[in-house]
Specification:
The termini are far apart. This protein has an eight-stranded mixed beta sheet, sandwiched between helices. Helices cover 30% and strands 22% of the residues. Helix 3 runs parallel beside helix 5 and helix 5 packs parallel to helix 6. The chain is globular and about 65 Å long. The longest helix is centred in the middle third of the chain and has 18 residues. It is of the alpha/beta class. The protein is built from ten helices and twelve strands.
């Protein structure tokens, strides 16, 4: 069966004034099925947001292919991209800046419906508001008159109003209180069940990701280093970077002093001049000579999981 979304060796470079190239995304490949949620996690600067923008058609890849239902998404033609704009939507992190502060909420919701030739009358707007559990009276308010959680619901409403097949969520809950995060995550699950929509859920918060993801892809310095189900990654990670990330996730009812927190030494290598071999080896306590010399491929390490490591193993989480 053809996947809903397929990335094949996707690269995205940013050219600097001096001619140097920042390799924000460097050879990423994966598939996403219809109705599935794939979470993309990693430190700030690892390339996950850039990759999300490539998928949404906002930032064309330098090379590689992004296919939707087997059809390659055009990289440089706005006209050719238009049919995909309705089928692939994006929700941004900054819920305050994602809508025009000088326009009422009804104008923000009507715009995507009007652009795509869909009904945008009062009944249609009320229906969209109901889908994200907001009162219709809020249609006549301005963004600054809404709470952060309400503004983010408007962001979700703008995305799902045109009934897309895929929504890219770029840190969509990171700026919200914990209780509001849980509400938005529950809303996304309800919408997925109702509409059958797929999500590419970009986040640095592994606690949130565990609640929403069917699979998780871990990125480091522009590349995916591990991919698997939440159960696989959270109970027995196969890559030392994943192990380190998970060691920082708070565990309820466990004294912080008794937890084995892994503190990575050194800084993240430059995306302009990445190290030879495995890109994580300068910070890896398990690195050997082969890690310093040869870049590992993302390869199967067990049932339905992948890791880019020369020495994949089940790193057991410690209390």
């Amino acid at each position: 069966m053809t996947p809903l979304l397929e990335l094949v060796d996707v690269h995205r470079e940013h050219r600097l004034a001096g001619g140097a190239a920042v390799r924000a995304v460097d050879g990423v490949s994966f598939e996403l099925a219809a109705g599935e949620t794939l979470a993309l996690v990693g430190e700030s600067g690892c390339g996950k947001s850039t990759l999300g923008r490539c998928v949404a058609g906002l930032s064309p890849p330098t090379s590689g292919e992004i296919r939707f239902h087997g059809e390659q998404i055009p990289a440089h033609s706005r006209r050719a991209l238009r049919p995909f704009r309705r089928r692939i939507r994006m929700v941004f992190q900054d819920h305050g800046a994602s809508v025009n502060p000088r326009r009422r909420i009804r104008a923000a919701l009507a715009a995507p419906l009007r652009v795509h030739g869909l009904p945008h009358d009062e009944d249609a707007l009320r229906q969209v508001m109901a889908m994200v559990d907001l009162r219709p009276e809020l249609l006549d308010r301005y963004p600054h008159e809404l709470s952060g959680g309400q503004r983010q619901r408007i962001g979700v409403a703008r995305a799902i109003a045109v009934r897309p097949e895929l929504v890219v969520l770029d840190e969509a809950v990171s700026a919200l209180d914990v209780s509001v995060q849980a509400q938005i995550c529950n809303l996304l699950k309800d919408l997925q069940e109702e509409l059958g929509v797929s999500y590419l859920f970009i986040s640095h918060d592994l606690g949130v990701v565990r609640q929403v993801a069917d699979r998780i892809a871990v990125m480091y310095l522009g590349r995916i280093v591990e991919m698997g189900t939440p159960e696989q990654l959270y109970t027995a990670p196969s890559h030392p970077y994943t192990e380190a990330l998970l060691s920082a996730v708070p565990i309820p009812d466990v004294d912080a002093e008794r937890r084995s927190r892994i503190v990575l030494e050194g800084e993240v290598s430059s995306a302009i001049d990445p190290p030879a071999g495995c890109r994580f080896h300068p910070r890896c306590r398990y690195a050997t000579d082969v890690c310093r010399a040869t870049s590992p491929e993302l390869a199967p390490t067990g049932e339905a999981r992948l890791a880019a490591c020369h020495h994949p193993r089940a790193f057991q989480q410690r209390d």
